[in-house]
């Protein structure tokens, strides 16, 4: 896989900030399905007068269970790259994901983002689920930079899985910022489960809470240089646009942003509202 794009961010001088999107070819093949496991993006430039870069998120999340492995980015003081890891599940090939994590260290991104579906899941056996998440934790442990989790349908499809996520990772939707770029991670299963799109996944969180939270985050970060939205299901790639997703696009408005999703196990790109929507 090979591709490269450059999109301008929010600045009085369009040349000052550019988001670059490029593919890196770490992949595995299962039958006729190509699983693209890493996807590198970057933002340039970061004004050196802005102080030391750091990952900033809700301080309340940093005190307890959190959906990341650390908040210590690994990159330069100027521009930055991050890697997006696509679905691992749905008949994964043993060893591919583990090797990909080792190769990500060669890219040396600031951090790594998941678009969900890391475990096979689809069980209410808590002990089995704990074992699957322990295996993922062991696989991402060699990374020299933070790994950010996102919930997919294989990760969260019933009340037991939802509660285990809460116990292990805290919230299934969250945001953070880095070098004045906003990252928003949403739980697509709260919009509607893959098995029943009319019903949100049962558990300790609700779609109403997620939407209310997101409205506040976007309002508070309206002037960020750029925004990335990460969600597992590509809710726009359907014969009928999901109503809450339509509302989110209205909230995003004219700000510069890119949306990243998974679920389909194939690279596709849509352009909506003159913005890029990328599915892995």
Secondary-structure blueprint:
Blueprint: E1 4-8, E2 18-23, E3 27-30, E4 33-36, E5 39-44, E6 55-57, H1 59-62, E7 80-85, H2 96-107, E8 111-114, H3 126-140, E9 147-148, H4 159-169, E10 174-178, E11 181-185, H5 207-220, E12 226-230, H6 243-252, E13 257-261, E14 268-272, E15 275-279
Parallel strand pairs: 7-8, 8-9, 11-12, 12-13, 13-15
Antiparallel strand pairs: 1-2, 2-5, 3-4, 5-7, 6-10, 10-11, 14-15
Helix pairs in contact: 5-6
Q: How much beta, percentage-wise?
A: 25-35%
Describe the biggest sheet? 7 strands, mixed
Order of helices and strands: EEEEEEHEHEHEHEEHEHEEE
Radius of gyration: 18 Å
| Mean pLDDT across every amino acid position | 83
Strand segment tally: 15
Principal-axes shape call = globular
Q: Which strand order do you get reading across the main beta sheet?
A: 6-10-11-12-13-15-14
> Percent of residues in helical segments?
10-25%
Quaternary structure annotation: single chain
Give the termini distance in whole angstroms.
11 Å
Regions with pLDDT < 50 over 5+ consecutive residues?
A: 1-5, 11-18, 24-39
Structural class by secondary-structure content: alpha/beta
Walk me through this protein's architecture.
- The protein is an alpha/beta fold.
- It contains 6 helices and 15 strands.
- It has helices at 59-62, 96-107, 126-140, 159-169, 207-220, 243-252, and strands at residues 4-8, 18-23, 27-30, 33-36, 39-44, 55-57, 80-85, 111-114, 147-148, 174-178, 181-185, 226-230, 257-261, 268-272, 275-279.
- The strands form 3 sheets. The protein has a 7-stranded mixed β-sheet. It has a 6-stranded mixed β-sheet with strand order 1-2-5-7-8-9, with no helix packed on it. A two-stranded antiparallel sheet has the order 3-4.
- The longest helix is centred in the middle third of the chain and has 15 residues, at 126-140.
- It is globular.
- The model is unreliable at 1-5, 11-18 and 24-39 (pLDDT under 50).
């Amino acid at each position: 896989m090979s591709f490269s794009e450059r999109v301008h961010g929010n600045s009085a001088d369009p040349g000052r900030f550019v988001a670059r999107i490029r593919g890196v070819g770490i992949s595995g093949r299962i039958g006729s399905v190509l699983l693209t496991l890493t996807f590198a993006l970057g933002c340039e430039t970061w004004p050196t007068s802005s102080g030391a870069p750091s990952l900033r998120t809700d301080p309340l999340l940093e005190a307890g269970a959190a959906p990341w492995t650390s908040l210590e980015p690994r990159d330069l003081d100027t521009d930055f790259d991050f890697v997006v890891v696509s679905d691992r599940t749905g008949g994964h090939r043993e060893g591919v994901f583990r090797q990909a994590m080792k190769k990500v260290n060669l890219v040396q991104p600031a951090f790594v983002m998941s678009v969900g579906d890391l475990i096979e899941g689809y069980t209410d056996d808590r002990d089995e689920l704990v074992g699957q998440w322990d295996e993922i934790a062991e696989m991402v442990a060699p990374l020299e930079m933070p790994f950010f989790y996102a919930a997919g349908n294989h990760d969260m499809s019933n009340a037991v899985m939802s509660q285990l996520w809460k116990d292990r990772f805290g919230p299934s939707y969250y945001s953070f910022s880095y070098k004045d770029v906003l990252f928003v991670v949403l739980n697509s299963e709260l919009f509607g489960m893959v098995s029943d799109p009319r019903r949100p996944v049962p558990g300790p969180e609700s779609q109403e809470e997620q939407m209310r939270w997101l409205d506040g985050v976007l309002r508070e970060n309206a002037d960020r240089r750029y925004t990335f939205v990460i969600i597992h299901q590509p809710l726009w790639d359907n014969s009928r646009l999901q109503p809450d997703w339509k509302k989110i696009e209205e909230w995003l408005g004219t700000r510069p942003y890119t949306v990243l999703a998974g679920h389909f196990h194939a690279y596709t790109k849509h352009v909506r509202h003159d913005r890029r929507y990328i599915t892995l």
